């Protein structure tokens, strides 16, 4: 890989602030609209959000019609499959005008010149989002590579009735969480507070984020990978210790056994994100109205920070011939009240826009949580405390190793920090194999 390409990849690292000259090296953009043609514009948007065609229709029948900008939503797969498809399309010079991208995929897309800098076309959009969320779409630079669409602040879910039955107090710190797990085991040996699961890497990444981890950063003109940093080791040791002593379960989530444990009260809490009500409604239907939500336990008694487990954004590609028009739609989609209400209704998303988190569909609790009228008020307050994250160009490799190494460690009740070291080593090895410069 040419050194210029490596330096451009390095320049995308989150937490690095670059000047306008350096940003230009990350990919050209006619974001000011100077080279765009006049007249009716047709845009294509690749997205996996359910019901996006209905949301887009609001645009096409309203502001889009007035501005002669028509958008067509094309349903796609999510995750790594969509990233691979976007990269392939870009290499052929025919990527769509707009793409939905998970936050952890942005460094990969920017480093491959897929996404344009639309900072000149989004107005005061920054003020609509929490700082920690906005940072994920700027990669710590003065550029704007996407508009935040949905977020997934992490929270603590628990069976309110069973906590009362067992005389448990909702933990506000992780130390209290551990003591709660042990106390429950003494009172009901066959019952678990929760489980450690390795089949969804986003959970562990969010917990590490809350603890202050920044897995990918840069040092000079090199990447620095710190997946095994002190913050993440603390998280790994904490959960590994609970699994080893049998204070919590070690089974994966989303299985029939896990569903049954939730539904029957064998597992009475779940560290999850704002989207949990939808999962619980299908996994534990008979417990509707029995769960409650609280902020995530903290590492210090005075702490107030959460991690993210999911979330996505809307970016404009460098292949688009109508970047200004595309940025206008992306801004409308993620900041306009009508659009956000439609996204919530049709797509079931929790908006990144802070003003939308307490309006429209979010003025009443999810149906599964009718017992907790302030559900979304709690969620909105928690979302404001989202910690910054630091993603890199090979998140998929780190996540794959996590699933393998941590699943084995959880099953065997062995050392989680050893699994973390494996995750670090595999990620660094892959980056070097790809030609990245990585500092030791």
From TrEMBL:
Family matches, as SUPFAM superfamilies: Periplasmic binding protein-like II (SSF53850)
Keywords: Cell membrane, Lipoprotein, Membrane, Palmitate, Signal
Signal peptide: 1-24
Superkingdom classification of source: Bacteria
Protein name: Extracellular solute-binding protein
The species this protein was found in: Streptomyces roseirectus
